[in-house]
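Appendix B, Record 12. Input sequence as logged:
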Amino acid sequence: MIKEGTYSAWFRTPKGQGTGIVELVGGTVCGGDTVLSYAGSYEAHGDRFTAIIKTKRHAPGQPSLFGPDELTLSLEGCCRGTPVTCTGYAAEAPDVPFEALLLFSASDDAPSPPAPRPTAKFSPDHLPKPSWR
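Logged structural output:
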């Protein structure tokens, strides 16, 4: 069963590699990287899953690892332990293989960060005095 939450994604094609963030919640996928946004859906069956994800450019920058920016990715993978692994292809570039690793990074169940410690008040009187005074 795939764990819902936020994942750091590392992915590659023969044209290069990249990283992004992916949120998996209730069968919905959303996320992105520095130039592309991702949106789609996933289904999990035991330790296997499938996903359909569409990409869209949201900022100028490096080219897509597939060539075209707007793609429909078909993925299948294994969610037994960590990392979650998957492979697939884009309908717009079927000859370009794709693989990804997803590392779980956060969820609503994650503990809250510790409370900040009080900050000492700044007092210039506590600074060292220059010797030329």
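Strands lie at 5-13, 16-25, 28-32, 36-45, 48-57, 72-78, 84-90, 93-106.
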